[in-house]
Amino acid sequence: xxTTNAMNTxxxxxxxxxxLIDDDEAVRGALSLLISTVxxxxxxxxxxxxxxxxFDRDSIGAIVLDVRMPGVSGFTLLQQxxxxxxxxxxxxxxxxxxxxxCRRAFKAGAAEFLEKPVNDDALLEALQNAVRQHVRSRERxxxxxxxxxRHAQLSAREREVLGLIINGLxxxxxxxxxxxxPRTVETHRANLFAKLGAAxxxxxxxxxxxxxxxxSA
Amino acid sequence: MWNSPRxxxxxxxxxxAVSLPGVVWIGHNALxxxxxxxxxxxxxxxxxxxxxxxxxxxxxxxxxxxxxSSDATRPEQRLPSVYPxxxxxxxxxxxxxxxxxxxxxxxRQSRQARRPVxxxxxxxxxxxxxxxxADTGYALQIDMRGLAPWSEWPMRPETSSVRVMLxxxxxxxxxxxxxxxxxxxxxxxxxxxxxxxxxFDVVAVSQVGWSQLPWGxxxxxxxxxxxxxxxVQGAHRQREARRRAEAxxxxxxxxxxxALGELAAGMAHEVNQPLxxxxxxxxxxxxxxxxxxxxxxxxxxxxxxxVQQAQRAAEVVGxxxxxxxxxxxxxxxxAVDLHTALSRALYLLAPQLQACxxxxxLQAAGAVNVLADPVALEQVIHNLLLNAMxxxxxxxxxxxxxxxxxxxxxxxxxxxxxDSGPGIAADVLPRLFDPFFTTRDGGLGLGLSLxxxxxxxxxxxLTAANHATRGAVFTLRLxxxxxxxxx
Lengths: 217, 487
Hints:
Chain A is of the alpha/beta class and about 220 residues long. Chain A folds into two domains: about 1-145, Rossmann fold; about 155-215, Orthogonal Bundle (Arc Repressor Mutant, subunit A), CATH 1.10.10. In chain A, about 55% of the residues lie in helices and about 15% in strands. Chain A has a six-stranded mixed β-sheet, sandwiched between helices. In chain A, helix 5 (about 120-150) packs across helix 9 (about 200-215). The two termini of chain A are about 45 Å apart. In chain B, helix 4 (about 215-290) runs antiparallel to helix 5 and helix 6 packs parallel to helix 7. In chain B, a hairpin with a 4-residue loop joins strand 3 and strand 4. In chain B, the strands form four sheets. Chain B has a five-stranded mixed β-sheet. A four-stranded antiparallel β-sheet of chain B has the order 1-4-3-2. Chain B is an alpha+beta fold and about 475 residues long. Chain B has eight helices and 15 strands. Chains A and B meet through helix 1 of A and helix 4 and helix 5 of B.
């Protein structure tokens, strides 16, 4: 059961989406209104189980979770989200937070732990941080994806050469290692720079070191 | 208090283990005493009979010494009138022979042994002859029944349980029959008479029956052990009861604290939700109004929602109050003696009072019967005493005094608890009975508040003040039971 708040800004896939899970309708309404004042879209959920099955995992944004809910506790839900590889940051809210509970939340993978009633500045700042963090992590993910795709276009010999370049070998050393002439190495090198779209040696290493490492492993 | 049959069994076992050896010892001792008495009597009997026997030797020697053969008056014939046990005296003058051959044989033996010799012993007739050889031979016939000097006898011959006999060569003469039973313990005594001329054995036998054992003492001992053990058991049970009461009290405290914790957690959640909504709504409204242009419509609906949620919070608090407040008439008012209630509370707190080094001084004229709920009253007194002890712990040990007074005046019974603690600070006094107000670290601040609530519910009052000289005074007033019915 998901109810998109009426106060939400028009559905724009570019604007980040906050998932708010709380069993109390009044709290859901008030918090979603508050969150929407800073231009974030809010989707509210009364039932943790429904949220877990129905929510859009690809959306950019964050999850706000009440610790104390009937049925599934906030902690259990958090653990399930982490176990399923959900990458949206989770902000936990609780009525009476103890240090122990706070420690548990961070250990379980929460991005933030706030006490309820929550101050608007604290909540909104936490949300904006979380959204920024999520956007960055998605970007990084996309960059990696692109790198992997380009890397896949390299020939076997070119991959070998790339690995040796990243290990810091000169053309001469690479030629010796692969038993080819330095001129041939030069040709491979020019090809792989073009295929990978690297502007410089530094750019090449920054963007493809991890991919090449994973490939040779 | 109920005791398991197993524990009861151990007590009985202990009772048997202690009393049985005592009973055996008493019986053994009594038997030893009886045996000693018997042996003493038997020795006396032996001495008396020996004296008589020796006397016969002496008489014969005397007659032989006097050599009164020429005396025609025969003075020896007067002996039986002097000694009743001497039945007859025979005499053989010099040159003559004994009329009976057994006397002649005896005299021959006597001459060899140089002492009187037994000539003929007839135990069936209880008599014997004694012969001494000399120029003039003499023979004495002795009545054995006359041997016993009854006037000096150590026992009463008719009633004594001891049988006394003389034995010689298979013959037996009973001097004192005694009453010999078939069961019990048998004492024996046998000894030769202290003269060679009459080689009889003095034999004494006694039988001590079961009935002669000191049953009274044994029973007294068993009863004494039972009484002592019962005392120990009583003390043990009392200690146990007290320990349990204390444990229950602690348990009750913990239970109350747990309940309180649960209540606080539940209350926090119930109140927190609307509060969170109020806060979020008002903050959203604030932001909406600060926008350019301000979104007045949405802000208004947010404020309306905030008002609704504030009312919801108030309702939660109201519901909680109603749940906690006991319904009217739930307390069970009865006539209770303040003195008894105070004693019970003191009894339960005795270990703590002792640890605190406080001996409460009780000033009470007598019973003060008030109308109260016994459980609530005990709770109030308990809390007041605890409170006083906590105050006393803040002054040196030597300066700790606790005075408890009871009185009845103006239709009210009063319990006054006066401690010599630091007293109540002026700024604390007005808030003393407020819930959650405490001066103690870790205190809940509910003890005195609860006391006052309970006192009020029982139509009484609880007041606090500082004493004129030192410490704090708490006064609990409750309506007197006697005052009921009077308009």
